[in-house]
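Quick one:
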Amino acid sequence: MATAADDIPPVEHQPQHHRFAVVVDGTEAELTYRRLGSTLELVHTGVPEAIGGRGISGHLVEAAIDFAASEGLTVKPTCPTAQAWLRHHPDKAAKVIVDWNGR
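Output:
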């Protein structure tokens, strides 16, 4: 059985804008970040109410984790949404070193 998450398009990394973004039903959601040396700080997750409740923020955070893992970066989740998602998905968080001190 398909879930709502199956309908979410792939997340696009937009390094020139320091964000990961996805457009769902014509509405854009994003996760902004700062790259500080070997650290990727997850700053803010913005999912408009019109497309909320579909797990989109999780897809954004997971895309950031996959990117950080591929680059050998430490992840510093200062965004409360990113923090919560990482705590609820320790298997995904285990792909990277997470700096919990920045929260």
